[in-house]
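ARCHIVE RECORD
Type: protein–small molecule complex
Small molecule: adenosine-5'-diphosphate
Source of inputs: curated submission
Record status: active
Notes field left blank by submitter.
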Amino acid sequence: MSDGQRIFVDAILRCCRARGIACEVRSQGWLIVMHRGERRHFAFGYDLGLNSAVAHRIANDKSATAEVLANAGVGCIPHTLFLGPKLGKPAPAEYARAAMLDLLRAHPQGLVAKPNEGTSGQFVFKVTSEAEFDHAMREIFASHLALAISPFVEVEDEVRVIELDGDPRVVYSKQRSSDWRHNLDFGARPILLDRGEARDACVAMARRAAQAIGIRFASVDIVRVAGEWKVLEVNSGVMMELLGRHHPELVYATYEAALDKVFE
Ligand SMILES: Nc1ncnc2c1ncn2[C@@H]1O[C@H](COP(=O)(O)OP(=O)(O)O)[C@@H](O)[C@H]1O
Ligand SMILES: [Mg+2]
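STRUCTURE (tokenized, with ligand):
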């Protein structure tokens, strides 16, 4: 991988070179323009353009994802949406705060508050008191318009499945370090799952989740709580930078397979 360049960009360049697809990298790699004959295709951020706009938006919205999954009968961790003061008027903000404190009372084991459209575990707070709650709200609303609240659950295991059109391309368990969050950015290590019951259960669940949202290429995070697997979140931008440090060839192959679907 070249210095500082994302493996996402490297994989696209490599794949385009092998297939005779012209490829221009713009905006420090954030925008990639590909041409094959008359056909022009973009990649943007971590988006290869395989997912519909609405599937992409639902996956990025934690509360919408939980709602769609619950509606389709796919087990998931509930995420309740609250708009911040920049979106709600002051009176609704007060109302929202009261509703959030009701949730806190209903869940003595605590809550998790996070940006509704967050990624990589930043601004994800465990909250067990009103003071912690106010701190989390201030931090989240300083840079985000809305937050999502879930009951805190004891996560026994967390697995990520990268799905492409119903196929599990990558399945790994996240072995966390000292932090309670399982994000690789916080030092969790990816352990690939080749076979086994956990893998089978997560692959089946990820497929159902992707189908429910109507998403083609996604990473689906699944947690085991009291022995039961539940979807925690779905990401439409498939980010594999940290996984790439451990398993670069797997990451290249996965992006290549997705890009082949684009030019099919
Ligand atoms: N309700 C919850 N109970 C326990 N742990 C949680 C809960 N929600 C999130 N986590 C932990 O925090 C991590 C980050 O939360 P997540 O919803 O994935 O946000 P992000 O999109 O920022 O990664 C998860 O990987 C999980 O380990
Ligand atoms: Mg996450």
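CURATOR ANNOTATION: The CA atoms of residues 8 and 261 lie 16 Å apart.
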